[in-house]
Design brief:
30% helix; single chain; 4-stranded antiparallel beta sheet; globular; alpha+beta
Length: 142
């Protein structure tokens, strides 16, 4: 069985991980928790996403918002210096393309007519400060 490489274009949120973590409180804990699980680090060929995924998916198990905030600050400082990194959270997928197999040579492509709505519902995130709406291109290999 070969590998799968994929590319996805989305509209979403960009925020410094430190800015997001410092905003965790009882009211927004579930929202920020889901943002952490759905997001990834803006990283061009570095190792940041592997470290981030290990922290979020393998080590992070919050009992409450206070524990979560303390754990994440400590983990992101001591296990990869991630607090200075931007977290990207896709909200609306626009286009995606996958490439399967062993051979990585060649070109894949896809298209979509420009007759779709580019607006996104940011109402759930209205109380999150210091975020911006961005266009996101995510490439991954599995």
């Amino acid at each position: 069985m070969g590998k799968c490489e994929s590319a996805t274009a989305s509209i979403g949120i960009k925020i410094l991980l430190s800015d997001l973590i410092l905003q965790i409180n009882e009211t927004n804990f579930e929202l920020i928790d889901s943002m952490l699980y759905n997001g990834f680090i803006e990283d061009e060929n570095g190792y940041s996403n592997q470290v981030y995924m290990n922290i979020i998916y393998n080590e992070y198990n919050p009992n409450n918002y206070v524990h979560a905030k303390e754990y994440l600050i400590n983990a992101f400082i001591h296990k990869g210096s991630l607090l200075d990194q931007h977290l990207l959270i896709p909200i609306k997928k626009l286009l995606s393309c996958e490439r399967w197999g062993y051979n990585r040579e060649g070109t894949n492509s896809t298209s979509r007519t420009i007759d779709f709505d580019l607006s996104v519902n940011i109402e759930p995130y209205k109380d999150i400060q210091k975020m911006e709406i961005v266009f996101i291109l995510k490439q991954s290999s599995n």
